[in-house]
Amino acid sequence: MWSIQVLQNPTFTRHSCRRLATWAKEFPRRIRVITTDVTGTLVSFRGSLSDHYLGSAAKCGVQIPQGTSFERSFARAYREMCREYPCFGSNMMTAKEWWKLVVLRSFAHSGTTLTPEQQDTVFQRIYSLFGSLKAYEKFKDTLPFLHWVQRKNIVCGILSNADERYGDSILPMLGLTHDELQFMCFSKDWGFEKPDGRFFLAAMQQAERYLHHPGSSKDPLLPGHVLHIGNDYAKDFEGAKRAGMHAVLLNRYNEGDVAQEWQRRGAIVLNDLMDVVEFLGRCNCQLG
């Protein structure tokens, strides 16, 4: 077992005017492992958060104050919980208990009063909804990409700031199982979150189990053999680069200004997973 070390990239510089971190572009020579984020990368949310939360509350007879920005109330509650109980509660509470606190705080911040009975019924309705196909769908290129990865003998797995329900039920419900994704690392299970380099390198340890089979290369897995795919500059791109890995960001939702800023700061930005296939082809790197 090799030790976990977070690397400082020697090409890391500072922009003289904006004082924003920039990275020199580096292209892979060999990719043996791909790690990927979940939402915004493999899977998309369906509908809006406010529709799901407020619709569930309305069905339970809850009146929502007029002029409420529920997305803002939810964001505040989510930030508070991440600060007070990081990694979805880690070993301090279950993910379901963590999400119940988020839901109840979201309604409280919106000025909505729930009776004790409504607290239970509203939460259970929301929690069940976010474990169903009403809240998620996979992108059309997800399975074709994962099948291409398999044909190239690349080990592929999840690296996500999420709880274990994704791996236990949500991804399998969408047809994404251990047949397509050999390993799944969720921050709830590990007690680390992106961009913590320990989380990225813990995923390498998981991937290494699937590299050594009869007929496979005995070469040690290096951070430079790993490509991480995500959609957040700090968590996905910088986190992976600081761990010594390669990284690309997906601009799934055509956020032009955001994508341009990512590119200005040194990120490789692509539109979808098929663009990742083309990118690796242009790099002419060894696969598997």
From TrEMBL:
Domain of life: Eukaryota
Gene3D superfamilies in the record: HAD superfamily/HAD-like (3.40.50.1000), Haloacid dehalogenase-like hydrolase (1.10.150.720)
SUPFAM superfamilies: HAD-like
InterPro entries named among the record's database cross-references: HAD-like_sf, HAD-SF_hydro_IA_REG-2-like, HAD-SF_hydro_IA_REG-2-like_cap, HAD_sf
Designated name of the protein: Haloacid dehalogenase-like hydrolase domain-containing protein 3
Source species of the chain: Fistulifera solaris (Oleaginous diatom)
